[in-house]
């Protein structure tokens, strides 16, 4: 099957773009898993909650600043406003994550792990219907952000017809990746979180409040999921079921990268994203199955994942 | 014939290796009779549908299999729909493409397929324990779901009818029955299969194999030290539990005469199966079965009452986690929370207001704690 170089490049870029979205979801999930030892089944719902909230926030912000004005300044202002809207959306999810952890999860850390699964699943079901209650059954979308950002020329400059919004997602995604690694490598809070991941008791002994770290980590995960939702929604629409697929793919990413490994989540997310999008042109029925096939392969060769567990390095 | 034995001073009877007191035997007999008369009871009321109870029993049966892993080896499988779906799809494929008509042969095919599938998935995922195992089984379940969705031979998202054309229905005992009779007969077949399955599971839980699994569940390394072939035993338990799922799935396909990926293989079904086990009480033998009927019934009633029935299920699960972690059967048992509370209430009825007050207080405390954590995260410690 002959695939032109341009088409291959476009598919790869699509894959990378999806990979960054996936990384934002999976990184929160994997850090929660690595530190709290909790598999948050409701994480996909946080992502979709972010998407729904983002539509409202985008609408509000565009209403305030209006459509992008002409010239470089107007464009820059608009892009900054979009980034601000994404951040606001993610910030709205911070309390959601905090309440999840502090009100619900905290009670059952000392119980069988199976209860955590039941609890997070119950929260998944509840969030699903809360969304249905607030936003209704049908999907909703916002075109303004996607079309406005696409008017900015980027890939056209090198002779490729590729949506600028996807380039925007890749750029912002790279910034998030860099920011996360900086946070965990360089800041004090990040080091405290990693210390808790390595040895919870030792961290407590030297004066780290693990309770607070747990809440913080869960809120961070919700923040990232909301961020991903806000970034993912403009080209598509927000639907009630949109959380399921990214959640399951995040599991695949975590298994590929290694439980709780941030670096592993990054490599795994890009791998899954790119291979999935190649499959769309090469062999469409394999699109859904391909990530799982990679996962099974990696399990056979390297059962602990590509990067092992987290802690010593980010 | 039943043989008389002595159990802690109370007389008990042993028959076919099942040991029980007279009271337990009476309960068992009542339960069996109840299962058999359900088609007649269901005819009396509109809200009670045989097909709903039937489906509950089938998923509950899969949960009984899952319970072997959950109860003894402490492994949480989040992908049991994989075996349910494998059984269902094996039945559909055999009936549609191989022209098999007999229900017995179809079920044997379902068992064979589920065994192979459980052997493969088990070999790949049993190297891990805990959440990693849950995650792996979930991912493998979704892989099968993806395959069923993607292959046009398996009908894609539309699913697969068991047999095309007007003669849709498989044959029972070599004869075709009218749809009503077929429904009741397959129900009786299900009850018989479930009774056999429960009996086998009971014998397993009375065997040294179960003790070995318990030891493995408590401490793997120690179990290996005392010479247990840990990997092989866990794998065997996984395959057995997969077979239960396969049988349930095969029966589901025979009853429904139609298989859809959404209804059999989707990961929410895996979640359902796991929660049935916990809802019914995963420390008990029949708990998962009861949990299955209750959960499916609840979802069915919920769908009629409100469009927000997922919320309803979620709230029930929350109540379960915080209030009745031992499940329905576990809580009703002597020493369970229901009995203890009822005893307190009988002795001193005013205790009710104390319970209400403590409940409100604890909710208040939790909300304050949550707000405090939020404040600390946002503004730091002052």
UniProtKB/TrEMBL annotation, chain A:
<dbReference type="GO" id="GO:0022857">
    <property type="term" value="F:transmembrane transporter activity"/>
</dbReference>
<feature type="transmembrane region" description="Helical">
    <location>
        <begin position="247"/>
        <end position="275"/>
    </location>
</feature>
<feature type="transmembrane region" description="Helical">
    <location>
        <begin position="213"/>
        <end position="235"/>
    </location>
</feature>
<feature type="transmembrane region" description="Helical">
    <location>
        <begin position="117"/>
        <end position="135"/>
    </location>
</feature>
<feature type="transmembrane region" description="Helical">
    <location>
        <begin position="46"/>
        <end position="66"/>
    </location>
</feature>
<protein>
    <submittedName>
        <fullName>Branched-chain amino acid ABC transporter permease</fullName>
    </submittedName>
</protein>
<keyword id="KW-0813">Transport</keyword>
<keyword id="KW-0472">Membrane</keyword>
<dbReference type="Pfam" id="PF02653">
    <property type="entry name" value="BPD_transp_2"/>
</dbReference>
<keyword id="KW-1133">Transmembrane helix</keyword>
<dbReference type="InterPro" id="IPR001851">
    <property type="entry name" value="ABC_transp_permease"/>
</dbReference>
<dbReference type="InterPro" id="IPR052157">
    <property type="entry name" value="BCAA_transport_permease"/>
</dbReference>
<feature type="transmembrane region" description="Helical">
    <location>
        <begin position="20"/>
        <end position="39"/>
    </location>
</feature>
<feature type="transmembrane region" description="Helical">
    <location>
        <begin position="165"/>
        <end position="184"/>
    </location>
</feature>
<feature type="transmembrane region" description="Helical">
    <location>
        <begin position="72"/>
        <end position="105"/>
    </location>
</feature>
<feature type="transmembrane region" description="Helical">
    <location>
        <begin position="282"/>
        <end position="301"/>
    </location>
</feature>
<keyword id="KW-0029">Amino-acid transport</keyword>
<dbReference type="GO" id="GO:0005886">
    <property type="term" value="C:plasma membrane"/>
</dbReference>
<dbReference type="GO" id="GO:0006865">
    <property type="term" value="P:amino acid transport"/>
</dbReference>
<keyword id="KW-0812">Transmembrane</keyword>
<keyword id="KW-1003">Cell membrane</keyword>
<comment type="similarity">
    <text>Belongs to the binding-protein-dependent transport system permease family. LivHM subfamily.</text>
</comment>
TrEMBL record, chain B:
<feature type="transmembrane region" description="Helical">
    <location>
        <begin position="25"/>
        <end position="42"/>
    </location>
</feature>
<keyword id="KW-0472">Membrane</keyword>
<feature type="transmembrane region" description="Helical">
    <location>
        <begin position="181"/>
        <end position="202"/>
    </location>
</feature>
<dbReference type="InterPro" id="IPR001851">
    <property type="entry name" value="ABC_transp_permease"/>
</dbReference>
<dbReference type="Pfam" id="PF02653">
    <property type="entry name" value="BPD_transp_2"/>
</dbReference>
<dbReference type="InterPro" id="IPR043428">
    <property type="entry name" value="LivM-like"/>
</dbReference>
<feature type="transmembrane region" description="Helical">
    <location>
        <begin position="273"/>
        <end position="296"/>
    </location>
</feature>
<feature type="transmembrane region" description="Helical">
    <location>
        <begin position="81"/>
        <end position="99"/>
    </location>
</feature>
<feature type="transmembrane region" description="Helical">
    <location>
        <begin position="233"/>
        <end position="253"/>
    </location>
</feature>
<keyword id="KW-1003">Cell membrane</keyword>
<dbReference type="GO" id="GO:0015658">
    <property type="term" value="F:branched-chain amino acid transmembrane transporter activity"/>
</dbReference>
<dbReference type="GO" id="GO:0005886">
    <property type="term" value="C:plasma membrane"/>
</dbReference>
<keyword id="KW-1133">Transmembrane helix</keyword>
<feature type="transmembrane region" description="Helical">
    <location>
        <begin position="308"/>
        <end position="325"/>
    </location>
</feature>
<protein>
    <submittedName>
        <fullName>Branched-chain amino acid ABC transporter permease</fullName>
    </submittedName>
</protein>
<keyword id="KW-0812">Transmembrane</keyword>
<feature type="transmembrane region" description="Helical">
    <location>
        <begin position="105"/>
        <end position="124"/>
    </location>
</feature>
<feature type="transmembrane region" description="Helical">
    <location>
        <begin position="48"/>
        <end position="69"/>
    </location>
</feature>
<feature type="transmembrane region" description="Helical">
    <location>
        <begin position="131"/>
        <end position="154"/>
    </location>
</feature>
């Amino acid at each position: 099957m002959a695939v032109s170089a341009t088409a291959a490049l476009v598919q790869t870029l699509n894959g990378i773009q999806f990979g960054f979205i996936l990384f934002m979801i999976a990184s929160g999930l994997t850090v929660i898993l690595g530190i709290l030892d909790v598999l948050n089944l409701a994480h996909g719902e946080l992502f979709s909650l972010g998407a729904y909230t983002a539509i409202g926030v985008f609408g509000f912000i565009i209403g305030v600043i209006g459509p992008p004005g002409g010239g470089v300044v107007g464009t820059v202002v608009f892009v900054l406003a979009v980034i601000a809207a994404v951040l606001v959306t993610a910030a709205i999810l911070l309390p959601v994550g905090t309440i999840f952890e502090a009100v619900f999860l905290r009670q059952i850390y000392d119980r069988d792990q199976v209860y955590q699964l039941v609890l997070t699943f119950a929260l998944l079901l509840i969030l699903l219907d809360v969304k249905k209650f607030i936003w209704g059954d049908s999907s909703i979308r916002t075109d303004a952000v996607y079309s406005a950002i696409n008017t900015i020329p980027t890939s056209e400059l090198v002779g490729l017809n590729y949506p600028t919004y996807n380039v925007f997602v890749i750029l912002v995604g790279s910034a998030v990746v860099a920011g996360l690694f900086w946070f965990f490598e360089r800041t004090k809070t990040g080091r405290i979180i990693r210390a808790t991941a390595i040895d919870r008791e030792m961290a407590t002994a030297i004066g780290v409040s693990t309770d607070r770290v747990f809440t913080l980590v869960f809120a961070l995960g919700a923040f990232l999921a909301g961020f991903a939702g806000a970034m993912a929604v403009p080209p598509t629409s927000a639907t009630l079921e949109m959380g399921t697929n990214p959640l399951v793919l995040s599991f695949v990413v975590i298994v590929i990268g290694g439980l709780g490994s941030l670096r592993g989540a990054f490599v795994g997310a890009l791998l899954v994203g790119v291979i999935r999008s190649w499959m769309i042109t090469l062999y469409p029925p394999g699109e859904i199955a391909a990530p799982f096939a990679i996962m099974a392969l990696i399990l056979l060769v390297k059962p602990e994942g590509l990067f092992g567990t987290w802690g010593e390095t980010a | 014939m039943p043989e008389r034995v002595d159990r802690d001073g109370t007389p008990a009877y042993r028959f076919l290796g099942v040991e029980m007191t007279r009271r337990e035997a009476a309960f068992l007999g009542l339960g069996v009779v109840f299962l058999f008369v359900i088609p007649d009871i269901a005819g009396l009321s509109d809200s009670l549908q045989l097909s709903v109870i039937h489906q509950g029993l089938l998923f509950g049966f899969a949960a009984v299999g899952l319970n072997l892993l959950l109860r003894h080896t402490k492994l949480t499988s989040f992908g049991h729909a994989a075996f349910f779906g494998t059984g269902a799809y094996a039945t559909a494929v055999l009936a549609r493409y191989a022209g098999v008509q007999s229900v017995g042969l179809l079920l044997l095919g379902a068992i064979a397929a589920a065994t192979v599938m459980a052997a493969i998935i088990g070999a790949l995922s049993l190297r891990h324990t805990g959440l990693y195992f849950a995650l792996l089984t979930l991912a493998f379940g979704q892989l099968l779901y993806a395959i069923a969705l993607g292959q046009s031979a398996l009908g894609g998202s539309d699913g697969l009818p068991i047999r095309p054309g007007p003669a849709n229905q498989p044959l029972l005992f070599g004869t075709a029955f009218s749809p009503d009779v077929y429904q009741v007969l397959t129900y009786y077949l299900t009850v018989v299969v479930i009774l056999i399955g429960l009996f086998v599971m009971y014998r397993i839980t009375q065997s040294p194999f179960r003790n070995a699994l318990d030891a493995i569940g408590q401490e793997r390394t120690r179990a290996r030290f005392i010479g247990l072939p840990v990997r092989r035993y866990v794998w065997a338990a996984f395959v057995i539990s997969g077979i239960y799922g396969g049988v349930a799935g095969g029966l589901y396909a025979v009853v429904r005469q139609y298989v859809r990926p959404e209804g059999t293989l989707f990961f929410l079904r895996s979640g359902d199966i796991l929660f049935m086990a916990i809802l019914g009480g995963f420390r008990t033998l029949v708990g998962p079965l009861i949990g299955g009927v209750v959960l499916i019934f609840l979802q069915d009633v919920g769908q009629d009452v409100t469009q927000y029935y997922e919320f309803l299920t979620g709230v029930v699960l929350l109540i379960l986690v915080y209030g009745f972690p031992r499940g329905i059967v576990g809580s009703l048992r002597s020493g369970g929370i229901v009995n203890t509370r009822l005893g307190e209430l009988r002795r001193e009825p005013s205790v009710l207001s104390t319970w209400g007050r403590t409940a409100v207080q604890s909710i208040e405390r939790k909300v304050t704690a949550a707000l405090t954590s939020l404040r600390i995260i946002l503004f730091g410690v002052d």
